[in-house]
Design goal:
By secondary structure, the protein is mostly helical. Helix content is 79%, strand content 0%. The chain has a single domain, classed as Orthogonal Bundle (MetI-like fold), CATH 1.10.3720.10. Belongs to the binding-protein-dependent transport system permease family. It is found in: Cell membrane. Its main location: membrane.
Length: 215
């Protein structure tokens, strides 16, 4: 093992560039998937005729598919029907679709956990269904969702490594390139990549615990 050679300035900077791509893809997917998940969960929670059933089928289908298959489908299959995207965009779209399905179930469970008595009291006080959802149900549900949602976001960050299969220049792709220069770099480089993942996810987990205590 050659730690000194593996941890040269150029190699470390190259890994950090890959880490930057991983964070950018994860950040975009986190925001988009959470917004989409809330929409899907609310549709199912409200039991909108036909639409809620369609959403339920889509969510359950995606949740039972491997993420790698979705990445392949978005990047390789969609261009066959005229939908062409860059590697970066394809990664975000695939992660967003998968995570939205997963998170929507967390959001829906949070909404269903709110006592029906509070909802009935809000409705009897003159609030509309939308106002009740906005001011009573959703705020309380979101507080209860913090731990599982953050856990899902941590999984999302780790799942960005799967995009190496479509050659997205993220952290694992960069580690693969650097370790390929010299067999003695393999262990040092992957240890450093593991350290980067640990720092990011541990930090996110610590922040989530503080938020959970405050709420």
């Amino acid at each position: 093992m050659d730690f000194i050679g593996a941890y040269s300035y150029d190699n470390v900077m190259y890994l950090l560039q890959g880490l930057g791509v991983s964070i950018a893809v994860a950040a975009a997917a986190i925001v988009l998937s959470f917004i989409l998940a809330c929409l899907l969960a609310i549709i199912r929670y409200a039991r909108i005729p036909v639409l809620s059933q369609i959403v339920a089928v889509c969510v359950e289908t995606i949740r039972n598919l491997p993420l790698l298959l979705i990445i392949f489908f978005v990047y390789f299959a969609l261009p066959e029907v005229g939908i062409k995207m860059s590697v970066f965009t394809s990664a975000i779209v695939a992660l967003t679709i998968f995570e939205a399905a997963m998170i929507s179930e967390i959001v829906r469970a949070g909404l269903l956990s709110i006592d029906k008595g509070q909802i009935e009291a809000a409705r009897s006080s003159g609030l509309s269904y939308t106002q009740t959802l906005r001011f009573i149900t959703l705020p309380q549900a979101l507080r209860r969702m913090v731990p599982p949602i953050v856990g899902q976001f941590i999984s999302l960050i780790k799942d960005t490594s799967l995009t190496v299969i479509i050659s997205l220049p993220e952290l694992m792709h960069s580690a693969k390139v650097v370790s390929g220069q010299n067999f003695n770099y393999v262990i040092p480089i992957y240890l450093l990549a593991a350290l980067f993942y640990f720092i990011i996810n541990f930090t996110l987990s610590s922040v989530a615990k503080r938020i959970e205590v405050r709420v």
